[in-house]
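All the exercises in this workshop are built on plain-text protein records. Sequence and backbone structure share a record, each on its own labelled line. The structure tokens are whole numbers drawn from a learned vocabulary of backbone shapes. The record below serves as our worked example for the rest of this section.
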Amino acid sequence: MKRLSLDDALARVPAASLAPFPSDAGQEAAALAVRGGEVVLVVPAGTPAEQIESAAVLIRGSLRLEDERVLTFQVSAAPESVAFEDYSARLHPGRHDPTPRAADRQVAAEIMSREVVTVNADMLVEDAAKLLAYHNISGMPVEGWDGGIVGIVSEADVIGHIGSTVSEVMTSDLITVGPDATIEQIAALMAERRIKRVPVMAEGRAIGMVSRADIVRALAART
């Protein structure tokens, strides 16, 4: 984490069509490097490092997606202030205007992939790698002996761990959302926790998966 002035933070994650940062001299920013991009958080000046995330009054992030799109978003603690901007990192077409928060905004159940590929916790890493390659996905939920989801295993987890079991390499700090979570909430969660996908859970079971690409597709369809 790196502390910055508001001007320096804005320069790190530019977004022409999103609202400018506040000009309050009593605020500063903290930059966080995340997998696939960067996030800056605006906080009151002097906020202790351990309170940065909880004290943030505004979050702006830029994430490079697996399909070569870039999602830039801004989330404020104030209502009616969530906005997104997405464009192709390869071709750079025109950017979309920010989408205001609306009562009928989409939720996880509407954008998630419903065919969830899962893997057993006791499966060998090389077999999990074959599943990832066959289904052309970068990560999948891990099921325990009772059928519940106990973790997530990704391409990064399996590399260099041939002979290990999935339970030995998976991420067990499970981060999930419910079917009613909004696109804005999911995008902010992905940026804050530095993840690319989240399982959608209902009654203890994974009913879908939402990835960064799912969010970009949903946002593009709004225009």
Observations:
- Residues 78-104 have pLDDT under 50 and may be disordered.
